[in-house]
Structure formats: structure tokens, C-alpha cells
Amino acid sequence: MAGRKSPFFDTATTLGKIVAFFGVSAVCGVLAAGLLVPAASVAGASATAGMEFFDALPAELREEPLSVPSRVLANDGSTIATFYAENRVPVTLDKVSDHMKKAIVSIEDERFYQHNGVDLRGITRAAMHNLTSSTQQGASTLTQQYVNNTLINADSLRGVDKADLTISGTKSIGDKMREVKLAIAVEKEFSKDDILQGYLNMVLFSGTTYGVEAAAQRFYSVPASKLNIQQSAMLAGMVQLPNVYNPTKNPEASLKRRNVVLGAMKKTGAITDAEYRKAVKSGLGLKPKVLKSGCISARTAAYFCDYVTHLVLADPAYGKTVEDRTALLYRGGLTIGTTLDPRLQKEAEKEAANAIAADDESNLGAAIVSVKPGTGEILAMAQNKVYGPQDGTQYTEYNFNVAANAGGSGGFQGGSTMKPYTTLAWLESGRNMWDNVDATRDEYPDGYEWQASCLPGGQTRTYSEDGTWPVNNASDGFKHRMTVDYGLYWSINTATVAQAAQLDLCDIADATERLRLVDGSTGEPQSPASPAFVLGTTDVTPLSQAAAFAAFANEGEYCAPRALTAVSDAAGNKYKVPAQECSQEIEPQTIANLNGTLSKIAGERVAKGTISAPIAGKTGTNNGASSTWFVGYTTGVSTAAWVGRHNGNAQIFGERINGRIYGYADSATFASPMWLAYMQDVIQYYPAEEFGTPETRPSSQVQPQPQDNNPFTDDGDNGDGNDGGDNGGDNGDGNDGDGNDGGDNGDGNDGGDNGDGNDGGDNGDEPSARAEDSAPADPSTSVQPSERGGNGRGNQDETPAPPGGND
């Protein structure tokens, strides 16, 4: 049972009021004895004791930096988001209207410019009022209030429990005495304008709104310098009881309080009678503006903001612990400069939303992220979902573009976007794009030995229930001998695996690791233990894809993704940000050879002549099209576009998407068109130059004759031909089995832009392309090794469609 409150100390009783009066009188006596009268002239033991107590109190104000919001900025200086525990925008006194200064002095401390920090007359007046009235009146000067707010700010930053803060109504006599002594010390050190400026920047107006500038913006959407008489009076009236006089919650009480302040202003001569009469007749005239804290407040680039937040909170440069870093972010007034280009961000958000609506019943995700080759700067990061914790499939706080340790979903299966790395290893082994591979083989027995020098025993094997690893293509007619260039151009699974069978799998894995294409969930490098990884079984993030392909755009130089450019705090301290980190990982000529094929994929199959500048890239689709990609680039911008499942690997075939049912889908259905629409909008902003000249096959080289003039006979399994045109095509008239990879036109260019064959079947009698929604298709097939022995998850990527446009 709670103890009964003694009436002796209850100021609600007459006896309590008398005691309170004498208590206040004692305080006044101590003040007079200790501050106004020399110690030698003070008589009496009580006065001496009071002086000793007073002398023991601290005389120096503990000041800590004000809690100031932090801002995340785009590369043009525009604000992306604001973080704050206290919404405060410190301003100098000359940035506050005279009306506001006069209003706060008139209602809170009309003798502010006459006293020395403590107003004994005010203390006596308040004591008499409180003794004889049912209402309570304070006697704290503005200087005392400034001191108390400073103490509260310091204690809050030091982690003092809210219950122990010296909030009005909870102060002991000792607290009051400390406040008084410190107020006098402050008055000796600072000018009246300094004190008034400090008070107006520190005082609470409502909720998390602190300081006059933030309050002016919050309730009137104007700077403090533009506050008029009635606006100033309303804000000045709020500081006594911020929650009670909040005009958005209690407009009647706020209006009544404002008029009291106007009366005080007239009494002190701050306004004329005419100004008073006009102002008191006016309404509140609110124009409220809510400034939310954190990335949820961002009007654009919310997911990029979230990524930046994770970078700051994970970096010891901003504090020893996560708690320290969080406090700095929300209270330290950081200005965080970033690499984000608002021009690209606007277009990325538009195209991601156009590709798949946020609330589409399919719940598919769409993501676009751009990186600048040569710097690693992240220029745009967008997705179709709305950033936030709310219920509903249109909302998520997971960032589709980044790794799990940065607040991301952990990536998605890369599919055929991984095939260039097998080709890189092929080229780095001394081989060529015009070399032939036997793509007829569509199964590998479990006992097949795959060279893997970095693994125990220097090799690996597949293990499956039926004793073989089947490798199939998405479309019929591609199981024949072909050049590496042709196999990559049409994304032939059997061709890629045939290349891998001649290589060391560790060299392929090394190519992915050099370009930082690691598992987006675990951060581990891709493992060569399962040969299936060459077809894209590993989950990789769109950001890592964009950064890796940026190395293709930049002559083999890889630059780590970079978001922060500069960070400083409210006190002007600068923090170290990660420096640009670039390294030459691939020889320029090797990249030029690879780009020769990737340029044709982007220019001939994706853009189809709609972009005149040099572009390159690679498509990708996994089984069931739960992950579809196009990662494309110019020398100025590298962009990964992804569409698929962000919550599993269920196939999307038969799914209703954007209002229609798709019996079949692939990279050409959503991802490639999204990339193309985006790049058409932004390619102008960054230079798009030539990628370099690929090496060509020596014209004197003698090639074998094709064994079959029709590679599609018997599904291409028998008599596929030897990459027709490799022989006759040197003279400009060869046809790779009626059009496949033919037409080297006598100049050694395996891809024959001239001549009778066009490395893509534009000439000859090849089957016409299947069309799906008037766009190239990208059917996916399954390569399903058993999970035994760590040999893959049995979920492989996309391969081509028939020549003529299908992926």
C-alpha cells in the first residue's frame, strides 16, 4: 500500500502552501546571503550553512553538443533523408524574427535584460501567487531555463534515465539551487543575445520538435526569420506546456494561450495596441509540415538510404559500438555525401515500377542498380516495392540489390549472366573466341573427372540418383559443334559446360572471385566443387553484378562499389570514408575479346538498333524464370536489371503478372526491356565509348569442313557440322549449317557482319524465331545434378532460343 502523502509537504493544502512559502523565502535568503552579500557580513548559523551548501554546488555548466539531425545527400547536394532523435535546426539569433524574440521574452522573462540570471523579484512574486492562488506560477528566468535544458541535454546524451532528468515539476531544492548558481555563472560568461540564442535553439516545442527554426517549419512551413506577430506568440506560448498547447492536437487551448502571450507582448510594449487587436482576432493559420526521421521519410532512393545507413552503423570510424554509431547518426548532425545521381535514380524508380507494379498479385520483385565504371560509384539503386514495415505485399524493408549483411535479400541465382566467367577463364588459358567446342554432349556420368586444382585431389565429380548429370538447352537445334563466340552469343548450356570440361573449374571460380561475385547470403566465394556453378546456381546480388560487369566496361579494372564521398558532423569534424578501391583484374585485350561477343548480345538481341552508342551485356534466366536478368553496360554506366521472386524460387510460368497470364517468361519478358527503357533515358549523362578491338581469327587458318549442312537435323545431335563458315566463311560465303555462325567474310571476323552468314542466323534457312509478347524469348532449362557431394542445387539457368531473336 502506498504511503500516505504528508499534508505538511503537500502544496495543495493551506499548511503546505505556507511551508512552501517559507521554503522559497529560505532559498531567497540563501541567495541573498551567498550571492548578494559579502560572506563577512552574513550573520547567523543558518546563513553560514546555506552559504556552505551553495558554495559546494558546481559553478561550471556541463555542456554537450546539441542533438542535431543528420542528412544523407545525393551527389548534387539535394537531401535524400534526415535522421534525428530531436528535430532541431540551429540558427543564429539574426535568423530569428524580432517578433519571436520579443514574444518569448514577454511571456517567459520580461525582466530578462535587467537581471543577472536570477530574478529575486520574480521568485517572491511567484511565491506569493502560488500561496494565494489555485494556479501555479514559475519564476525561472530564461537563463535558468537555458541552464536546465543544457543539463537535460547533457544527461540525455550520457544515458541518464528519463525519470532522473531535471524536468520542470520534479526538481528538488538542491536542483533549483544548482540551477540558480549556474545561471549566474552563465550570465557572467555569455551575453544576453548568446543566452537567448542558445535557449531558442534548445527549447522543446512539441514531440521531437526542438528549437525555433524546426518549430517554425513544423507548424507554419516558414523559416524562423519570417515569423509574424501571431505566429511568434503561438510558438512562444507552447514552451510552457508543449503537449497541452500543441496547435495540431489542442487548437482551442493553443489559441487561448497565444492570446495570453499577445497580451503580455502589449503589456511590455513589444507590440502596439493596434497590432494586438489585429493579431488577437486572427486564427492560428497553421501550415503544418511533418518531417519524418529515417529512410522511411525519403521521397526517393529509400533503399539506397537504407544501404548507406548500414554502411555507417557497421563502420567503427563512426563509434566503437553500434549504439555509439546510432547516437551519432541520430544526434550528431552528420552531413553524409553520397554518389547517388538523382537523374538516374528518378528513371530507375520509374522503370522498376513500370516493369512490375508494387502491389501486383504476382508479388514479383524488380530491381535496377547502376555503377560507374572506373570509380565504383553507385549512381542509382531502385526497386518496385515501397520501403516500409507496413503490412501488404507492396511494402518491404529488404533491399533486393544488396547482400544480406547490408540489409538485402541476399541475391538471386545468376543464371546465364555467369557464363562470361567460363569464357574469361577460356581466354585467359590462351584459347580464343573462334575456337570450336563440342556442344553435342548433354550428359556427364557421375564418374566424370572435372579438373579443380584448388580442391583436395585436384578434381571433383557430380553425384546423382540416376548416375548422370543431364545438361540440356532451352531450345532444340543447338547440340552441334560451334565456336565459343557463337555458344556465348546464344547462351548455349551444352557449349558452356563443354568449355568448362576442358578447363580447371578453379580458374572459372577465380574469375568470379576476382570480380567479387560472391554468395550474397553468406559472403563466401563461389565453389568449384559443383560444376553446375558455371551455369549460375549461386545467389548473387544485382549490385555485385553491376560492379563486376563495370570491369568489363573498364578494360578489366574492377572498382569496389562505393556510396559515401564525405562525412562530417555538426562540429565540423570529418570522418574517414572508404577510398576508391580499384585493381586491374583482367587483361584489357582479354576483355576486348569478350566484349566483342557481349556487344553483339546487347546491340543485336536486346537493343536491336534502338541505341546507337556502344553497349554490351548478358542475359540470364534460371529454372522457372524465378530469377531473370539483363546486366548491360557502356563505358560510362554499368547496370544490372533483375525481375523475379524475392521470396523463394517458385516458377513464374502460368503466373498472372501485370494482369495477364504468362505461360512462358524469361529475361526478355521483363528484365531486358526494363534495362533498355532505363538506358535509353540515362545513356546521355555518361560517356559511351568503344570497348576496344577484339582479336580475330587469322585468315590463313585452315578449319575443318562442316559435317552436315543442316545443324537442326535430328535435333542437332548427329552430324551437327563443324561451325560451318569457319572454312568457307573465311572467303565470305560460308554458311554455318545454313546460317549458324557463318560468314567470317574473309577478314577473320567470326560473326560476319558482311558475307552470307551472320553468327546469329540472319542468313540461310534457319528456323524463324519464336516470339513471346513481341519480344525475344529466353527459355530456361534444368541442369540437375544431385546435391550429393556438394555438386549444385539442381537449379540452373537459362539458355537460348532459336536464332533470330530468342535468348
From TrEMBL:
<dbReference type="InterPro" id="IPR023346">
    <property type="entry name" value="Lysozyme-like_dom_sf"/>
</dbReference>
<dbReference type="InterPro" id="IPR001460">
    <property type="entry name" value="PCN-bd_Tpept"/>
</dbReference>
<feature type="domain" description="Glycosyl transferase family 51">
    <location>
        <begin position="77"/>
        <end position="266"/>
    </location>
</feature>
<feature type="region of interest" description="Disordered">
    <location>
        <begin position="691"/>
        <end position="807"/>
    </location>
</feature>
<protein>
    <submittedName>
        <fullName>Transglycosylase domain-containing protein</fullName>
        <ecNumber>2.4.-.-</ecNumber>
    </submittedName>
</protein>
<feature type="compositionally biased region" description="Gly residues">
    <location>
        <begin position="742"/>
        <end position="761"/>
    </location>
</feature>
<dbReference type="Pfam" id="PF00912">
    <property type="entry name" value="Transgly"/>
</dbReference>
<feature type="domain" description="Penicillin-binding protein transpeptidase">
    <location>
        <begin position="480"/>
        <end position="635"/>
    </location>
</feature>
<feature type="domain" description="Penicillin-binding protein transpeptidase">
    <location>
        <begin position="367"/>
        <end position="430"/>
    </location>
</feature>
<keyword id="KW-0511">Multifunctional enzyme</keyword>
<dbReference type="InterPro" id="IPR050396">
    <property type="entry name" value="Glycosyltr_51/Transpeptidase"/>
</dbReference>
<dbReference type="InterPro" id="IPR001264">
    <property type="entry name" value="Glyco_trans_51"/>
</dbReference>
<dbReference type="InterPro" id="IPR036950">
    <property type="entry name" value="PBP_transglycosylase"/>
</dbReference>
<feature type="compositionally biased region" description="Gly residues">
    <location>
        <begin position="721"/>
        <end position="732"/>
    </location>
</feature>
<keyword id="KW-0121">Carboxypeptidase</keyword>
<keyword id="KW-0808">Transferase</keyword>
<keyword id="KW-0328">Glycosyltransferase</keyword>
<dbReference type="GO" id="GO:0016757">
    <property type="term" value="F:glycosyltransferase activity"/>
</dbReference>
<feature type="compositionally biased region" description="Polar residues">
    <location>
        <begin position="696"/>
        <end position="712"/>
    </location>
</feature>
<keyword id="KW-0645">Protease</keyword>
<dbReference type="Pfam" id="PF00905">
    <property type="entry name" value="Transpeptidase"/>
</dbReference>
<keyword id="KW-0378">Hydrolase</keyword>
<dbReference type="InterPro" id="IPR012338">
    <property type="entry name" value="Beta-lactam/transpept-like"/>
</dbReference>
